[in-house]
Amino acid sequence: MSLDLTRVTVLRPDGAALFPQIDLSIPPGTIATLTGASGVGKSTLLDAVGGHLSANFRMQGRVLLDGRDVTELPAERRCIGVMFQQAVMFPHLSLADNLAFGLHPSVRGRAARQAAVTEALDMAGLTGMGARDPATLSGGQRARAALMRTLLARPCAVLLDEPFSALDPERRHEIRAFALATIRSSGIPALLVTHDRADADAAGGPVVALS
Question: What span, in angstroms and rounded, lies between the C-alpha atoms of 206 and 34?
């Protein structure tokens, strides 16, 4: 499954383009990086790719997943997952129930769903913590849980919007390594927005600098 952007840009309400048109092909298991100054449109581009673009903006170009044009599809039909800067958990649900919320509809039956959640917790280094209140988790634990919840939905691609910037410096390297390795092993393309050159270097894929 590849993610391809063809002559993509975003137009402001006045019709001016936020950035020059982008052509980018991201193969399976590859993490491409978007860099650039604050306000240049990096997160807005992710919104356009994911189908979450504000009504004040308009996208030009095409977004394709494995050759299928998803440009006109609503966000819920694009099969594109998103991981944000803040790892938001539902406060009224346990950690396990938060992960179960993201399960793909094809995972049916109580036993199968429990097994999928248990495996995800184990992969994230959160074994035995399913009953925990998310508020009791550290920032790094929430970040790992949020990534696994995103992947449990079996997305065809993942968008990462500054997912490591809110982490403590001493944990950032560890969580980044876990997240990038997990995405690569899943074999899906990913697009990462960051201000940190170290994030781009760790991602190891193509780098697009917006201007």
Answer: 9
Q: Is residue 112 part of a domain?
A: no
- Let me know if residue 100 belongs to a domain: no
In the chain, the number of structural domains is 1
Q: Which strand (E) or helix (H) includes residue 10?
A: strand 3-11
Per the DSSP assignment, residues forming a β-bridge with 11 are 17, 58
- With H, G, I as helix, E, B as strand and everything else as coil, classify residue 114: helix
Residue 17 in domain = yes
DSSP, collapsed to helix, strand or coil, labels residue 208 as strand
Q: Is 122 within the bounds of a domain?
A: no
> Which domain CATH number covers 29?
3.40.50.300
pLDDT in tens, 44-77: 999 999 999 999 999 999 999 999 999 999 999 9
User: Going along 49-197, which residue ranges are E strands?
Assistant: 58-65, 68-69, 80-83, 157-161, 190-193
Q: Which amino acid is at 188?
A: I
Question: What is the rounded distance in angstroms from the CA atom of residue 35 to the CA atom of residue 93?
Answer: 35
Domain extent for 159 = 3-91+138-209
List C-alpha distances in Å: 86 to 83, 100, 126, 164, 182: 8, 19, 19, 9, 19
Bridge partners (DSSP) of residue 191 are: 32, 159
**Helix/strand number for the chain, H first, E second:** 6, 9
Q: Could you give the CA distance from residue 136 to residue 157 in angstroms, rounded to a whole number? A: 30
pTM across the whole model: 0.90
How many angstroms separate the CA atoms of 146 and 167, rounded?
13
